[in-house]
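Appendix B, example 12.
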Amino acid sequence: ARRSVPAWLARTALRPCLAGPHRASRAIIEASCRKPALPETRAPEDWRAARLVRRKGTPAVIFITAKFKVLPEHADDWPQISRAFTDATRAEPGCLWFEWSRSVDDPAEYVLVEAFRDDAAGAAHVQSGHFKQAQQTLPVHLAETPRIVNFTVPQDDWSRLGEMAVPGHG
């Protein structure tokens, strides 16, 4: 009896490897394509749509990255325009970091990297008075609606980038 290939594997770029004269062993392909073991569990039905389910006691943060396309005439002033919102957010008890960077490719684009201690801290942030104020005052300086990536990360601080390790400097 021939074993069938898992649905997630059949949809991958390796699908051509499963057929043809140079067919690789299914066991080798499945082993090399197996999802990495993570400290959380995932619903097996659909890897891409699965939501993270944390194990009890595993630290996790709400990690957000947003791109703000500022109107060119306001781009140089954006740090000052967003200052009150930035300072108030950084003062929130659940805010771990709230950091702006300006794109080196597009001087009218700013990237915001922010993290909150947990879901409750993230909810408190978007329900705060300074967030509601920013919703009223900041969009008039923007060229488009900001784009965002928002997810839960199973850690509570930045990790070291091992691929770029600096010898002797941890």
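The beta strands are 40-41, 53-54, 61-69, 95-102, 109-116, 147-153. The two ends are 52 Å apart (CA to CA).
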